[in-house]
């Protein structure tokens, strides 16, 4: 690397001077934090933050608790309880969001199959999901994918670990099952549904469905990586504490 190719050195003093010159509103920062706490469901933290800053939350904080109960129910596989809670919180949501309603019913079917309740699952599929498939043809591929779980051989799990459900064990004993079918049983499937429902509930309250704070942090990481090829500058190395790593600066001592 030639002298002209060397990364530009930005000293700690220069960096801090630029930071002080930047116009960042404390109110805007507080709003970002409050938005994150509300969307992610940190009710107590939102209450404390509101008390400390004097910033009123943009929603009734009691609805946070209700949204978190719904999210936890889905993540624990209790879809019926989640559906009932949704209807208590917003009785019109599932009527106006047919795809979301289908996803809830789909997950409820998956949980029944997971528990080995095959007859109940078949009846549920015919009464609840088949109708939705006829009403909304675009949902049929998802329905067909879910129905493929009925073809999994549950008899293969007779000597399986007691920690596994019948269906999980059968999947483990059958490596030929397509990945997209297998993914229906993963914990991420529940998480995706919980996140989608949380976003829909927030949108129904005229609130942002996603917090801007994580996106800004990703942007910061990306910007640092982009800049470091051309400059040696103070980098944030710990986003929890705000610690910086400062570049080595040339010695100011003159040779004797």
Condensed summary:
The chain has 256 residues and is mainly alpha-helical. The chain has helices spanning 12-21, 26-40, 43-53, 62-75, 79-89, 93-96, 98-114, 118-135, 140-147, 166-172, 179-182, 187-204, 212-227, and strands at 8-9, 231-232, 235-238, 243-245.
Strand order of the largest sheet: 1-2
Element order: H for helix, E for strand: EHHHHHHHHHHHHHEEE
**What about the largest sheet?**
2 strands, parallel
Mean pLDDT: 84
Spans of 5+ residues with little confidence (pLDDT < 50)?
Answer: 154-164
Provide the helix percentage. Answer: 55-70%
Alpha carbon gap, first and last residue? 29 Å
Number of helices: 13
The percentage of residues in β strands lies in under 5%
What's the total count of β strands?
4
Give the overall shape, derived from the CA principal axes.
Answer: elongated
**Which structural class is indicated by helix and strand composition?**
mainly alpha
Mind telling me the C-alpha Rg? 26 Å
Describe the structure.
By secondary structure, this protein is mainly alpha-helical. The protein has a domain at 59-153 and 180-207. Helices cover 60% and strands 4% of the residues. The protein contains 13 helices and four strands. It has helices at 12-21, 26-40, 43-53, 62-75, 79-89, 93-96, 98-114, 118-135, 140-147, 166-172, 179-182, 187-204, 212-227; strands at 8-9, 231-232, 235-238, 243-245. The strands form two sheets. The protein has a two-stranded parallel ribbon with strand order 1-2. Strands 3-4 form a two-stranded antiparallel sheet. β3 and β4 (243-245) form a beta hairpin.
């Amino acid at each position: 690397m030639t002298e002209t190719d060397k990364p530009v050195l930005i000293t700690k003093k220069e960096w801090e001077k630029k930071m002080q010159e930047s116009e960042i509103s404390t109110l805007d920062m507080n709003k970002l934090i409050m938005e994150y706490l509300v969307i992610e469901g940190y009710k107590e933290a939102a209450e404390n933050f509101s008390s400390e800053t004097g910033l009123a939350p943009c929603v009734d904080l009691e609805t946070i608790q209700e949204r978190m109960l719904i999210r936890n129910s889905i993540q624990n596989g209790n879809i019926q309880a989640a559906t009932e809670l949704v209807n208590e919180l917003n009785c019109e949501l599932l009527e106006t969001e047919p795809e979301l309603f289908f996803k809830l019913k789909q997950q409820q079917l998956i949980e029944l199959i997971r528990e080995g309740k095959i007859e109940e699952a078949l009846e549920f599929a015919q009464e609840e999901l088949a109708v939705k498939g006829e009403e909304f043809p675009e949902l049929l591929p998802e329905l067909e994918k879910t129905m493929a779980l009925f073809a999994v051989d549950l008899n293969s799990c007779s000597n399986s670990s007691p920690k596994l459900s019948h269906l999980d064990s059968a999947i483990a004993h059958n490596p030929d099952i397509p990945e997209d079918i297998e993914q229906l049983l993963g914990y991420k499937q529940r998480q995706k549904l919980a996140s989608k429902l949380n976003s829909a509930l927030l949108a129904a309250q005229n609130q942002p469905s996603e917090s801007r704070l994580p996106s800004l942090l990703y942007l910061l990481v990306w910007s640092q990586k982009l800049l470091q090829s051309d400059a040696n500058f103070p980098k944030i190395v710990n986003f929890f504490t705000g610690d910086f790593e400062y570049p080595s600066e040339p010695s100011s001592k003159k040779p004797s």
